[in-house]
Amino acid sequence: MPPHFHLEYYEPPQGLERHLLALFHFAWDAPVIHERHPGALAQLVLFPHGTGTVTFGQREDAILGEAYMISAFSTAVPYSMNGPWHAIGASLSPFGWAALTGRSVKDLLDRVHPAHELLGDDIRQAAHDINTAYRAGKLDGRQACKCLAQWIEARLQQLPPAHERLIERTIDWLGQSLKPDVEALFDRLDYSRRQAERLIEQYFGFPPAALARKYRAVRAASLLARANLSDRAESEIAEAFYDQPHMVREIRRYCGYTPAKLGGSDEPLFLTLLRMKNLSQLGRSRTSG
Description:
By secondary structure, the protein is an alpha+beta fold. The chain has two domains: 6-153, Sandwich (Jelly Rolls); 161-283, Arc Repressor Mutant, subunit A, CATH 1.10.10.60. The chain is 44% helix and 22% strand. Strands 1, 2, 3, 4, 5, 6, 7 and 8 form an eight-stranded antiparallel sheet that branches. Strand 4 (42-56) and strand 5 form a beta hairpin. The longest helix has 17 residues, at 208-224. The radius of gyration is 19 Å and the shape is globular.
C-alpha cells in the first residue's frame, strides 16, 4: 500500500504570476520519509513540522530550521525527513529567483540554503510567525501560502529590461520542443555568444546545452508519468533521445529513477512532483506580469 501524503497547489496571487509558478502546501505524517527531489525549479519553503537531511554526493545539508531556499540541482537528490513533515512553499520562476535574491543561480547550485543567508533576517521572523500560526491551527495551508506570497511580493526587485527579455526568450526556447536547437537560441538573443552563455548561467544555473539536456529528461519523465500518454507525446519523447537506453540513462541522471513505463517502479511523491504544473507554468511566466 503506497504512503499517504497531501500535496495541494494554489495559483499565485494576481500580479505575481511571472515570479511564482505555484504555491504549495504539503503534509506527510509518517515517522520517517525517504524520497528524492528532482530539483528542476528553485523554491522558498517553510517547514512548520519536520527535520532532515538532503544528500549531495558526499555532502549532507541539514534541514533543522523553519525556512530554506532550494536552488536548482544538477541531478535529482535523495533526502530523509523525520516526520511528521509539513511544508509551505513557493516555486520560483527564473524571474522570481533573481528578483527575490539578486543572486546568480550558477553560484548556488546543489545546495539547500537557510533562507536568511540569501534573503536576510526578515525571513526568520516571517517564517516563525507563519509556522507558529499554522501549528496552532490559526492558518490552514492555503492561508499560510497567501502569507508567504505577500512577504515575497513586498521584496521583489526590478530586473534590467534587457535581462528580462533574455529570460523570456530562453523560456520560450525551452518550451519549443524536448530537444531545442541551441544555435536557434543564440540567434534570437541580443548578446554575443559568450555574454549570452554567462547570463543564462546566471539566471538558469546552466549553459544552454546543459539546460536543454536537463529539461529534456525532466519533461520526458513528467510525460511518461502520465496515466494516458498520447501517441504524439510518445513520438516526441522517442525523437528526443538516441534510443531507449539513452533515455533511461538521462532520466535516471536528472530524475533519479526509471519510469514504470520503462520497467521501473513508481514512487508516489516523486511522481507527483514530476506531474506538478510548475513545469507547464514556466512558459506562462514569460508573458505574465
